[in-house]
């Protein structure tokens, strides 16, 4: 009997988290529909898109190769990395595993202090947000008044 109760509780917990993740895109008014991915146009190279431009309710914005919204941080100034330490677990930098032979217009690579290469767009470092679950989510926009969706 105890085993049955434990199984029911575990299944209930797993189901609740899956339902919560499924509807995470509805947590802010700027989120896209779960059923339609944002329209995207490539800004990438001939060998594949590094960055795409998508359109949503708030206009055009930049997305990673997998369609996730990209962000800029106001505290990245004068060549200094404003997001360091624990900030990076919430705001992972958009990194290149290897330097591409060519980069799209306005896209550059910046070497971080740990030696990794982070993409920048028009000179601004770009990040992902751990709170975004699906393409079209913009849950990081406006956080602390310093994080903003990257715009083309």
What does this structure look like?
Helices cover 16% and strands 24% of the residues. The protein is built from 2 helices and 9 strands, in the order αββββαβββββ. The protein has helices at 2-22, 87-90; strands at 39-42, 51-56, 59-64, 71-73, 95-96, 107-111, 117-121, 124-125, 147-149. The strands form 3 sheets. Strands 5, 6, 7 and 8 form a 4-stranded antiparallel sheet that branches.
Summarize it.
With 152 residues, the chain is α+β, with helices and mostly antiparallel strands. Helices cover 16% and strands 24% of the residues. A hairpin with a 2-residue loop joins strand 2 and strand 3.
Write the topology of this structure.
Layout: H1 2-22, E1 39-42, E2 51-56, E3 59-64, E4 71-73, H2 87-90, E5 95-96, E6 107-111, E7 117-121, E8 124-125, E9 147-149
Antiparallel strand pairs: 1-2, 2-3, 4-9, 5-7, 6-7, 7-8
């Amino acid at each position: 009997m105890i085993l049955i109760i434990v199984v029911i509780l575990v299944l209930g917990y797993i189901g609740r988290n899956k339902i919560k993740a499924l509807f995470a895109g509805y947590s802010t008014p700027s989120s896209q529909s779960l059923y339609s991915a944002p329209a995207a146009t490539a800004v990438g190279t001939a060998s594949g898109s590094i960055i795409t431009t998508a359109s949503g309710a708030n206009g055009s914005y930049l997305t990673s190769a997998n369609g996730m919204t990209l962000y800029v941080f106001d505290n990245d100034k004068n060549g200094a990395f404003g997001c360091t330490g624990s900030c990076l677990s919430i705001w992972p930098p958009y990194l290149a595993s290897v330097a591409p032979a060519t980069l799209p217009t306005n896209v550059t690579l910046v070497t971080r202090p740990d030696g990794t290469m982070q993409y920048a767009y028009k000179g601004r470092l770009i990040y992902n947000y751990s709170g975004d679950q699906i393409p079209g989510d913009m849950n990081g926009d406006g956080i602390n008044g310093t994080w903003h969706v990257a715009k083309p």
